[in-house]
Amino acid sequence: MKAILCDQLGGLDVMRLAEIPIPSPGPGEVLIRVHAAGVNPVDWKIMEGGLARLFPCKFPLIPGWDAAGTVAALGDGVTSLSLGERVWSFCRKPDIQWGTYAEYVVMSADGVAPMPANLTFAQASTFPLAALTAWQSLLEVAQLRAGQRVLIHAGAGGVGGFAVPLAKWAGATVIATAKAGNHDYVRDLGADHVIDYATDDFTAATRALAPEGVDMAFGTVGGEVLARSYETVRPGGILVSITDKTDKDRAEGLGIRCKYVFVKPDAGHLRRLSALTEQGVLRVPEIVEMPLARAAEALALSRTGHVRGKIVLNVG
Q1: 266 within some domain
Q2: CA distances from 98 to 36, 95, 248 (A)
Q3: Are residues 199 and 143 in the same domain?
Q4: Do both 93 and 173 map to the same domain?
Q5: 272 near 122, Cβ under 8 Å?
Q6: What SUPFAM superfamilies does the annotation carry (predicted)?
Q7: What is the 3-state secondary structure (H, E, C) of the chain?
């Protein structure tokens, strides 16, 4: 099979297109014929070695965690899926080595689910990591519910683009940040209010909309943005970060909760997201498509941090 291989960590120049054997699924596993692989910032962060302590790597390494494709083979004991079925998966494994920038990938069946019937493979590959992150952060950890108010950073981004409509579906009032050119896009996703992070003080703007503070602040952006987000949360509310670790001492001093979330594979959650997508609650983000051979270019584009929607590698 064709795959993007890396023999060491470093810049994007360590990536090469290679031909390697097709893997075989073990008990409880699924072999997916990958038709499209979603590109995420974590991919280039791993490649550059920035997450080496969190995710030790083995070599040769195939990047990528998002996949949409068809079931090519089933390991012993797998009864939840069928050969040829169209599926999607967030293919993060305990060992970071065999990813989705390849024609085939093996994944535990408990992380693989039927993809929405109304999506193409390229469209479906944009969902798993980002949509699962939004679902688990908003609905599992923060337990967002009707009548609450939430601040979502980077509403036009990969995770924000799913968080906004999920929060709206849950019945929350949604305040999102985005650059001016993306305001209409984010409102169309369901945001009630959009703050221009480039020109406005989002803490003051949020407090103007929610004087006592929001019930949840969703930190999809780290650094100073995350640090200032504590001040937007009401006492008893929660700050959820998917970028930097949270400061529990600071949160306790403000009377709020905080939680760092790293998404987990979950077929059950994917099935819920599939149903919501087929119902029209979630929509396909804008997509930049590239062939597998241009994986390095795709990661370089992701690294700019200014992609609206998602980048997809068309595998075949």
Answers
A1: no
A2: 15, 8, 35
A3: yes
A4: no
A5: no
A6: GroES-like, NAD(P)-binding Rossmann-fold domains
A7: CEEEEECCCCCHHHEEEEECCCCCCCCCEEEEEEEEEEECHHHHHHHCCCCCCCCCEEEEEECCCEEEEEEEEECCCCCCCCCCCEEEEECCCCCEEECCCECEEEEEHHHEEECCCCCCHHHHCCCHHHHHHHHHHHHHHCCCCCCCEEEECCCCCCCHHHHHHHHHHCCCEEEEEECHHHHHHHHHHCCCEEEECCCCCHHHHHHHHCCCCEEEEEECCCHHHHHHHHHHEEEEEEEEECCCCCCHHHHHHHCCEEEECCCCCCHHHHHHHHHHHHCCCCCCCCEEEEEHHHHHHHHHHHHCCCCCCEEEEECC
Q: Is the pLDDT assigned to residue 268 strictly greater than 90? A: yes
- Please tell me whether residues 209 and 295 are part of one structural domain: no
Confirm whether 159 is domain-assigned.
yes
Q: What is the per-residue pLDDT across 22-41, written as a single tens digit (0 to 9) for each?
A: 999 999 999 999 999 999 99
Q: What amino acid occupies position 246?
A: T
Question: Would you tell me how many other CB atoms lie within 10 Å of the CB of residue 280?
Answer: 9
Measured distance CA(119)–CA(239) in Å, rounded: 33
Q: What's the pLDDT tens digit per position in 285-313?
A: 989 999 999 999 999 999 998 787 899 99
Q: Is 255 found in the same domain as 142?
A: yes
Q: Kindly state whether residues 195 and 137 are assigned to the same domain.
A: yes
Integer Cα distance of 58 and 45 in angstroms: 15
Assess if residue 292 is contained within a domain. yes
One domain for residues 86 and 52: yes
Rounded to the nearest angstrom, the gap between the alpha carbon of residue 85 and the centroid of all alpha carbons in its chain is 23
The pTM assigned to this predicted structure is 0.96
Q: Which domain holds residue 121?
A: 2-126+284-314
In one-letter notation, the amino acid at residue 166 is L
